[in-house]
What we know:
Layout: E1 3-12, H1 21-30, E2 43-47, H2 59-62, E3 66-69, E4 72-75, H3 80-85, E5 103-105, H4 108-112, E6 124-126, H5 163-168, E7 178-182, H6 191-195, E8 201-203, E9 210-212, H7 222-226, E10 232-235, E11 240-243, H8 248-252, H9 258-262, E12 268-276, H10 280-284, H11 291-298, H12 305-313, H13 318-325, H14 328-335, E13 340-341, E14 352-355, E15 364-366, E16 369-371, H15 388-395, H16 400-421, H17 427-437, H18 441-452, H19 456-459, H20 470-474
Parallel strand pairs: 1-14
Antiparallel strand pairs: 1-12, 2-7, 3-4, 5-6, 8-9, 10-11, 13-14, 15-16
Helix pairs in contact: 15-16, 16-17, 16-18
Amino acid sequence: MDVRAQTSMMFHLDKCIGCHTCSVACKNIWTDRKGTEYMWWNNVETKPGTGYPTKWEDQEKYKGGWEPKEKSVKLRVTDKFRGLANIFHQPYLPTIDDYYEPWTYKYSDLFDAPASDDQPTARPISLITNKPIDINAGPNWDDDLSGSPIYANNDPNFDKISESEKQALFELERLVFFYLPRICNHCLNPACVASCPSGALYKRGEDGIVLLDQNVCRGWRFCISACPYKKTYYNWKTGKSEKCILCFPRLESGQAPACFHSCVGRIRYLGVVLYDADKIEAIASAPEDELVERQREMILDPFDPAVIAQAEKNGVHFSIIEAAQKSPVYRFVKEWELALPLHPEFRTLPMLFYIPPLLPVLGHVENGIYDVDATDYFGSLDKARMPMQYMASLFTAGNEEQVRGVLEKLLAVRMYKRAEQVDDIDADLVKAMLEKTGLTAEACEQIFRLTSLPTFEERFVIPPAHREYTAELMGDPYTFKAEAGIGGFKGTPERGL
């Protein structure tokens, strides 16, 4: 058992209001300089939709992530031979049109235009070429357009639902959408790290944050092709790649990342989890329908004496272990099994988890009253406007039972609190729901408390930064466990920070 610590995140999608405050906060701090205009390390997408960059989930197009190979995995986009052949050419890169060409406006024309009968206008100017352009796309261009046949109809997650279900989603009374905020997942098995020929990308030993050394990067852009979430970007001005750094300077000073701190809906949670690194390769190569459960198994109990002893033996400070014991992410992911990874079939073992939204259901009108079946609340999940298979395609690699289990628990907590506060739900029905989901009244209270009424300190359990241990943790580089670098741990004392 190789116990390591990982800074992990969780987003509660039922609470996201799509305000994009997180995106603006990140943009103002990290990507406001030349060459980063089109970069959104944090972006908020509308689902159904094609996302940013366009159709980033379609790995037939981009070849990102890993694929199984003889009880191991291999990169889709490259290996030793393909990497050498394509080192000067990346055939699977998203183009600027898949993002958008950033622009500003030529405001000087409003002041310097000569006297005329026509009203002067500020024409859009490309920030890359400095020439006039026609604006055809932009960040969050498809915001709230879930009913659009142009955007939502091209969502790659529709591939696994029937044509009738797909068409029903575009009927006026069935229109539905939810927001999906995305940042770098800081994966346990990062494809970007394994694909980098120059070794510029590495995973920090002390907290698992994936960083990119600008002094080592040579701009080969394999990391962009290999990342299935397309959260590594190329700076056209500097010729280097860049990515989300999880605001590690803020974490080291005890502050939450900028996007977390600014979140209006308070959907974001951050904490430490302990995991067994010896299982990375076996879990990454597991069958698709087992990936979610196997990834949960890899997360260790921070209260287990054997885990604590092995963690301390590996150099994990006890204050970090204490932070793992208080971690909200551990509770949602492991204890309550409510949070799920985004597209686990990419096999990067992402450390950003999501609680899927409880989507609105289709009710009926009887005697002039709109109602949903009040005797079978779990049955309402089958009447949800969004097909269960769509949610499963996003969060469980197509396993409908796993995503249904999460939604049933969320529904049980909702009904438990409604019975307590409104008193219009039969107590026997609530008891049956708790028995079916395996929840207790105490667990429901804790889930409700941590979801609806958490303090800042409960949502962000940030351990102290023990910089004195960094050199010791990074002293011996973690070797790759298979071809192309399973686990993605690299580092030397010089490149560890």
